[in-house]
Amino acid sequence: MSFNGLTSIINGMADPGLLHLIQESPVPELLPPPALPAYLEALLFPGRAVLTGIHTVIFDVYGTLFTSAAGDIASSGGTGAVSDRAAGRSVPGDGRLEVLAGEFGCTGQELREHFHREVLRLHRELGEKTDYPELRVEEIWAEFLNRYGETPTMSVQELALRYELAVNPAYPMPGARDIIGTLKHRGIRLGLISNAQFFTPLLFEAFFNAPPKDLGFDPELLIYSFELGEAKPSPNLFSPAVLRLKSLGLEPENALYIGNDMLNDISAAARAGFKTALFAGDYRSLRLREGDSRVKGVRPDRVIRNLKDLSALLAETA
User: Fold this and answer.
1) Residue 314 carries which DSSP code?
2) Pairing of strands 170-172, 66-68
C-alpha cells in the first residue's frame, strides 16, 4: 500500500476532496468550561498583568485553535479526554461512521475496534524506542484496506480522514482566525506544536482558506507529532522550536506557548523555557490533570478563556 499524495498533503497542496470532507463534517457544540481551581482562577486574564516582550506565539491545535468532539485528536487514544460519548452525549458524526463502515460490509463498532486495537499495537511497538510514541494513522488504515480489499474510489488518506471526522469532527474555536491575523499583523512570529496527523494542517486550509505557512506561521515552527514519531509531552517536540528561535537570535523565554493540557502543553512548554498560557475555554479539551504527580507544582504564566484575549494579554512593543 503506497500513500500516494501524502507528501503533497503535508506540503500544503491539499486534495480539494479532502478539504470538502472537512468542511462538510458536523460541527461539535462548544461547551462552557467548568469552574477553575482557585490557583488557576488567580492567573486568569483579564485581571492579571499583561506579558511584555513576547516575540513569538506557538499554539497547540486540538482543544486550543480547534474544538473537537473528543477534545483531542483521535489517535491520542482518548487519554484524559472528556468526550461527548463518555459523558453520555451523542456524537454528531456517529451516523457517518456507520455509512463508512457499510462501504466495507462491516459495522461502525468493528471499525472502532480495529482502530483501537491497532493504536495499542503500534504504541507497544513504538514504545520500545520512546516513552512518547506517535503513530501514523495511514498505517492503521492501509492494513485495513489490505484486509477488506482496497477500492479504487477510496484512498487510505480518505479513509483515515473520514474515520477521524466521523468519531471526532473538528471546528475552529471562536476567534481563532481573527487572533492569527491580529498577531501576524503585529509582527509576532507564529508557530504550532501539536499532536497531529497528516490531516491536521488541512483544518487550516479547509476553514481559513490557506495552509498554516500562508496564514503567517513560520514553516520551521510547524512541528507535528506524526512527522517526528513522538507525541507531547516529549521534549523532542519542543526542542526544534527552541533551536529555531535561537538561530534567529531570539530567546525562548520571550515566546508564549498556549495549550489546553497541563501536562502535554503547560508543563512540557515550561520545561523548554517558554512562557505559557493555559486555554480554558472548552469543557471537552481542558485537561487540568489534577492528582497527576507529573504536574504537581506546575503553574501557567496566565490563563485565558477566550482566544481574543491574547491580543490584550501581549503588550504592544514600542
Assistant:
1) B
2) antiparallel
In this prediction the pTM is 0.91
Q: Which ranges of the chain would DSSP assign to H, the alpha helix?
A: 6-10, 16-23, 38-41, 94-102, 108-126, 137-148, 156-167, 176-185, 200-208, 212-215, 225-228, 239-247, 268-271, 309-313
Q: Which residues pair with 256 in a beta bridge?
A: 57, 275
144: closest CA among 155, 134, 153? 155
| Cell numbers placing 229 | 514519531
Would you state the cell numbers that stand for residue 212, as one nine-digit string?
Answer: 498554516
| Among candidate residues 196, 114, 194, 187, the one with its CA nearest the CA of residue 148 | 114
| pLDDT tens per residue across all 318 residues of the chain | 334 444 444 444 679 999 999 999 989 888 888 889 999 999 999 999 999 999 999 999 999 999 988 888 887 654 333 444 444 444 555 689 999 999 998 999 999 999 999 999 999 999 989 999 999 999 999 988 887 765 557 899 999 999 999 999 999 999 999 999 999 999 999 999 999 999 999 999 999 999 999 999 999 999 999 999 999 999 999 999 999 999 999 999 999 999 999 999 999 999 999 999 999 999 989 999 999 999 999 999 999 999 999 999 998 754
Fill in the DSSP letter of residue 151. -
Alpha-carbon distance of 55 to 190, in angstroms, equals 9
Return the number of other C-beta atoms located less than 10 Å from residue 239's C-beta: 12
Phi, psi of 239 (to 5 degrees): -60, -35
